[in-house]
Amino acid sequence: MAMRNYQWCVAAAAVLLLAGCGGAKSDSGTGKAVTLTKEQVRQTLPDGEAMTGWKESARPTAVEMDKLYRSQACPIKDNAGCENSRFYGASTLRHHDNAATVTFLIIAYDSEQAARKAYDVLWDGYYGKRAGQRAKRFGLGPIGDERDARFGSSGFRGEPGAVTQTRVGTTLLWTLAASANKDGIDENGVQDLATVLAKRAQQAQNGDTPSAALDG
User: What's CA 3's distance to the chain center, in Å?
Assistant: First the structure.
């Protein structure tokens, strides 16, 4: 996949949301696996305040899952992976200095079992391919209940792109990162982004206001 198309796909999810709505020990914190409200989904998504050095391109937004959003969140046959999903959310940010962009996505399910069942369906069927055909897997460390990540390069200049998927309790989370510069993102930076999102998801399920932030 060309990086130009990859970046368009990353941004498209957030644009659509804005149009529709005004077992390992985990670094995300041991805690509850409870169903999130729409407002908790929105609060889970990192914003500019939580991301030092980044500026919001699309503010955190959450919507009730319906036919339109199932086609965006689970764009595979019969929207597999969206069964028993309740809410869908996205936010997009751009780094001030290195032309990097990141889109955070979340699907909130009505149970941990539903999220667990959807995990492999969505990673194998769609999200695991978002970093290009030659992307390689890399480790995220012990974040969330399940996690996967791929880092690749595509385009004529070898621009980097990465995708992570994490399950935290009743939620599935994605970090889609790309940069127009070859050194705009790296595996460590992507891991930091995914960790922030996972920690915020656990804080929400613990009943706390998400506060995990990226420093620098």
Answer: 18
